[in-house]
Amino acid sequence: MKKINKSSVFAIACTALMGTFGNSQATAATLNLKDPILQSGTLNGALFQEIDPNDPAGTGVLQSFVRLQSPGNNTVEEGYNTDGRPLEFDENNSPQFTRSLKLSDVPIFTIGGVDYRRFLLDINEPNATPQDQDKPLIDLESLQIFLGNAGDLLNYPTFDGNAVKIFDLDSNEDNVVNLRDTNAGSGRADLLVYIPNSLFSVSTNEYVYLYSKFSGAEGGFEEWAVKVKEKPDTPPKSVPEPATLAGLGLVAGAMAFARRRKSSQTA
Ligand SMILES: [Ca+2]
Ligand SMILES: [Ca+2]
Ligand SMILES: [Ca+2]
Ligand SMILES: [Ca+2]
């Protein structure tokens, strides 16, 4: 189980309190993460945290389990992950990008003593233009998570009775999260979403279904992932540990130096 560093916990805890009190009067709560000032907050029990462009978290190749793209000039997109075909909404048809996801593959992080399952979102929106400063903005209108008894279920939202909804951003009111494509382009996550792990214990179904809906969606695809594949620059396992290599190099260097000194003295 991974731990989050204390400063992030503090930041999340503070914004959690702010969010709780700030939203208590609203009938439709909005978590505004589009402005640089607020980088994290809670909405209906979920924690949302933007990834700072300088933070190495989220770098590498995202292994998406659902990829969405608004069709044509439409700026609304929705969909969910499954191995089933044909797909119902705006999902990418490739089994590499839209596929089943097992709960055991969703990592658990402990924040402030509470366990959460973590999902990554990569937003892919156009850059701002002088005419339209809002192009990089996008709104997460819906986020629902289900546990299903097979990986190829279809027919959202009932899934023919084979899935149980365990989280709904809108379960109490019509909530929305305002977002910005902070890490421009695709291939780098923009947002971490933490869902309380306790919610996942209501069912023994092992397949996770994540349905999301965005508005203000333009340009490239949005994708959800749980894992980032590191760039393939790590050495193969047969190579000795770096410390061993360094030690050998030092010994060899010292021997060569001693030999040179000896030969220069005898000359
Ligand atoms: Ca991005
Ligand atoms: Ca946009
Ligand atoms: Ca909503
Ligand atoms: Ca987009």
Structure commentary:
This is Ice-binding protein C-terminal domain-containing protein. InterPro entries: Ice-binding_C. Residues 1-28 form the signal peptide. The chain has helices at 6-23, 242-266; strands at 2-3, 30-32, 40-43, 46-50, 61-68, 76-80, 108-111, 114-122, 137-148, 163-168, 176-180, 191-196, 207-215, 222-229. The strands form 2 sheets. Strands 1, 3, 4, 5, 7, 8, 12 and 14 form an 8-stranded mixed sheet that branches. Strands 2, 6, 9, 10, 11 and 13 form a 6-stranded mixed sheet that branches. It is 16% helix and 32% strand. It contains 2 helices and 14 strands; from the N terminus they run E-H-E-E-E-E-E-E-E-E-E-E-E-E-E-H. The model is unreliable at 13-26 and 234-267 (pLDDT under 50). It has 267 residues and is of the alpha+beta class. Bound molecules: calcium ion (4 copies). Residues 141-142, 170, 174-176 line the site of one calcium ion.
Please sum up the structure shown.
A hairpin with a 2-residue loop joins strand 7 and strand 8. With 267 residues, the protein is an alpha+beta fold.
